[in-house]
Amino acid sequence: MPRIDTADDELLSIRAAELYYDEDKTQDEVGAILGLTRWKVGRLLAAARENGYIRIEIVHPRARKLALERQLRERHGLTDAVVVPVAGARSESELRERVAQGAADYLAALRPVPRMLGISWGRTLHDVATLLGEQWAVGVDVVQVNGGVSVNQRAGTAAATAVEIARKASGEATLLPSPAILERVETKTSIENDRTVAAVLDEAAAAAAYLFSAGPATHSSAHIQSGYLTTGEMDELVRRGAVGDVWGRYINAEGMIVDPALDQRTLGLGLTSLQHASTAILVVSGESKHAVTRAIVRNGLCTALVTDEATALDLLTDTFGDDPDDKDNND
Amino acid sequence: MPRIDTADDELLSIRAAELYYDEDKTQDEVGAILGLTRWKVGRLLAAARENGYIRIEIVHPRARKLALERQLRERHGLTDAVVVPVAGARSESELRERVAQGAADYLAALRPVPRMLGISWGRTLHDVATLLGEQWAVGVDVVQVNGGVSVNQRAGTAAATAVEIARKASGEATLLPSPAILERVETKTSIENDRTVAAVLDEAAAAAAYLFSAGPATHSSAHIQSGYLTTGEMDELVRRGAVGDVWGRYINAEGMIVDPALDQRTLGLGLTSLQHASTAILVVSGESKHAVTRAIVRNGLCTALVTDEATALDLLTDTFGDDPDDKDNND
DNA sequence: GCCCTATTTGCTCATATGAGCACTCAGGGG
DNA sequence: CCCCTGAGTGCTCATATGAGCAAATAGGGC
Lengths: 331, 331
Known about the structure:
The structure is a homodimer. By secondary structure, chain A is of the alpha/beta class. Chain A is about 45% helix and about 15% strand.
């Protein structure tokens, strides 16, 4: 192969990088090949890295994007963030599993270990329950914070999620025996005031930590599939600015309840519990949930976030949501 | 951020890699964070690399794929190969320019410098001419090896290519004043025997090196655009096994002339000149030319290849084209 | 033409890293 | 029950690398 002897340092730095990184040569050897001293080679390589020509990627489903995590913590005031890569994920569900795995790892490593964990339900949380290791903790009790699915074939999933998380931590699961959304406010109020239900809600309100996901305001919402909402009602919610739901409560981009009447018929803890929680872990993945994630994170409805790279980037790229005089975002 | 303390070494190696490669920590620091000795960290990183979890990529339009180049040389007996990355190329023409740049760099670095360079014509070679630096060599004469385009608005491109390459090397350009394909054999023979034309062909046959591209056997061929062939004739060539043309001569996958009668009407050097050349540099890019490239490379019609990553991979992935008892192809 | 300055180059030295080796320890067979 | 084996661990030492500094060099103003 003919030697390349260009005066151009940039090109030379690429040639050096090829030999150093791709061919595993030492800087000395690279120097011998290109006719340079080994110090010059070192400087060329430094320049190549400086210019961003060298990309090092960790390809593993359980890899994390620490730089994005740091930016999320700094720019959105989060206590913790876990960001998993999208590269190589072939489907939405594969991505969801990666995120769920990240959440399971995070939960198992969470200190102090919460005595009581409040959880919602959904496919994401169900995955988290499945992926949690046996004995991920010892003596963690679990309580549901909102009404469960009970109308269609997915009935039981909500309960199973809570039970499995508790079982794997040798703790007790407390279920909330109620629909998610009632047809009439009166029904909701009377259930809420029922002694057993009220006791569960009291327990939930006292939880040391919350683990929850969010739903999109689209026709694929679990609330529509479960029959709690019609597609028409969903369209109306969207028209009024809804971006998604948290604990069954539909919010707009400002994190405010979109439809107070509907919210009155929704059973479970209110969002103020989330706002005041010392540990509120949001687990969310997929493009359809970018908007609702933004609403949650930007309005302080979570203290920790477990998500995918694309969602993290979405949170970081929009400018108008941050303080204009915020810190610079280059790491 | 909570510490992760898994027994699983694989996961641990990913955590270590994140801190070492993404966060620029030393192995010592990584060890302190993960609660490991620095030797353990070194071993975990080695394992991560071993397992292919660390991908290092050089992102630059002029970067080269040395590993692929080596495999091409070894498996196809080439003297030289230049492979440029496709990553980041947004169009066929951008890719063609990258390859042309690679060819220009290669040509400028070629030793010994050929006294006489035989060239064909086409968009790719025109790009090479444009991208060659002024004074890329001194005293290199250029000669056309096959009849030029002269029918449509691209008239003059072929001549311009030769002239520019020669000018930038302070050499003379010798043009072949003739159409590429004649209607009747008799016309072709008489032109060929014309004193001036014969002299050019003699010069071309004596060239120290050839620089050429190839065309696909499709309706987008330059021969159709220039009016030398009709789409019907092309379809017939394809039916008879044509994969593309070299110097205006259509060949099949075995590198044989598809239509001897047509070939008789094609003016310029024959492919035997290419076969016996000590330096024959093929410059080719794009998916439409994979088949013809394969035919050329597998049948010894070039000694050096300048191409893109995708074409190189195409040449390397088909199994039945190589000696079954060839060397192993892991690098 | 000369000198002054800014940049580049070659070096010394401290540090980071990988190879190789001795040691430990768990588990299984005699 | 004890020894034996083999994986895994911690270490020593040689090598590779980056920081910092002095010498050289280029370029520009006077």
